[in-house]
């Protein structure tokens, strides 16, 4: 591990968690940070998220071996251009964004002579901002690296070692496949959750108060991810458009088939699907990606 | 409160929780129980879910002032017919089913000379069977009563008092409105969760192992409710068909609008919706229907 100084650009949930995890698990590494929002910089300094919070991105990246851009994927290009002139030539550039083809393209354009290894730790909560981060966010979660063709193996190895030291498991994947997989396991679930919460808010014949009171029937589960950061998620859908539309098409086909089964009273089709879907939950629990407690361990 | 003996027909998650809540919070009331599955009867007796488990529904309801049918809504008619000849004439008949128009009709047909007050405690977990129940399931949750026209006020008051004593808040509603409200807050969320979990399982270009590994991106939330009891949920969709299809139509319209926004790169529409949906989560937490801890309080 040759990384001694890490600059974190963007000090929200992900940037803050990365900073705190570095401090706790790799205390030998110095951290610097920058956020374009002055209020976030102030709060990050108060919480001591990084060793030093700077007022410009340029100062933050000075002397670092690794810079991690923790900004919405739509802001990656601008954040990269912001540091292009002052970034040490040997520094590795990475990120934590949820779409990877767009990030790879934006980084290659803004920093053509730097080593860029995009990354996506598949972890988060519905909260955002400089108070949302915590050191154990990445424990047991997967971090996907999508190095472009020709990325130096040393940089990939360094970044792998760093994420593993922070508690994550690392997988290497090409950006295109990443975008397809995450469309299924993250982007479509968010889109559906946002949609159903919106649909429920807009009804005339069911009041908002009723929606809230009877939300324990299942709806409240969807409101959690529909409370996620709006800018981050707007950018995800705009930047992973093709894979999202492709997966949305498949989901809609399947939903239409179930709609037809309900309309025609075809209980067998419903029962067959409803029996099959239990297995996946069991596998997710067996693989340590969720807790076995009923109802997410909610306090009853 | 004139109820001294309650018969519980069906000893799964809901029947078992009702039994345990009665024992803990209304210990003066005697409970009897029956389940058509012999293995469930044996297990219920071992756990002491009710005072006495009987081998026939007829024996279980003998001498009771209230019988609560805790069976899938598609089995309500049969369960009611099963006790019609032996049920004391003064006994109130209720249930815990998720659709109420169909239940009201089935009870009126099977037990035309009894007082029937259908009920729906909006509470549950993804688990089922005689080991799944617990006494605090109804604490702070809403229980909706849908008494038919002409139901005696005394019966409604008795049932209200009983559910309140078990920790629930009670609301009276007509069956038709119940079915519309619950289609939104419970049935459509379940249908969507089952669908997306099915879609993710059936893909060729994304492996099942990838779906499981990267499920922390949002997908795992949906697998919880998609692990719910298949028979119960098949029956809900077959018995609340009209309201489910109506609400599904509205959801699909909204999803199509978002799909168009993604295709055309209309970030403003996405951002506007994603900002709006945060409020509902906050209201649900403020009203005590979910916990404020990030990520459902999952252990990080």
TrEMBL record, chains A, B:
Recorded catalytic activity of this chain's protein: prephenate + NAD(+) = 3-(4-hydroxyphenyl)pyruvate + CO2 + NADH
InterPro entries assigned: 6-PGluconate_DH-like_C_sf, NAD(P)-bd_dom_sf, PDH_C, PDH_N, Preph/Arog_dehydrog, Prephen_DH
GO MF annotation: an example: prephenate dehydrogenase (NADP+) activity
EC category name: oxidoreductase
Record flagged with keyword Metal-binding: no
Gene Ontology BP terms: tyrosine biosynthetic process
Biological or metabolic pathway of the protein: Amino-acid biosynthesis; L-tyrosine biosynthesis; (4-hydroxyphenyl)pyruvate from prephenate (NAD(+) route): step 1/1
Entry keywords, A to Z: Amino-acid biosynthesis, Aromatic amino acid biosynthesis, NAD, Oxidoreductase, Tyrosine biosynthesis
Top-level lineage group: Bacteria
Residue ranges annotated for the Prephenate/arogenate dehydrogenase domain, each copy included: 4-292
EC number(s) on file: 1.3.1.12
Matching PANTHER family: PREPHENATE DEHYDROGENASE, PREPHENATE DEHYDROGENASE [NADP(+)]
Family named by the database record: Belongs to the prephenate/arogenate dehydrogenase family.
Name of the protein: prephenate dehydrogenase
The species this protein was found in: Erythrobacter litoralis (strain HTCC2594)
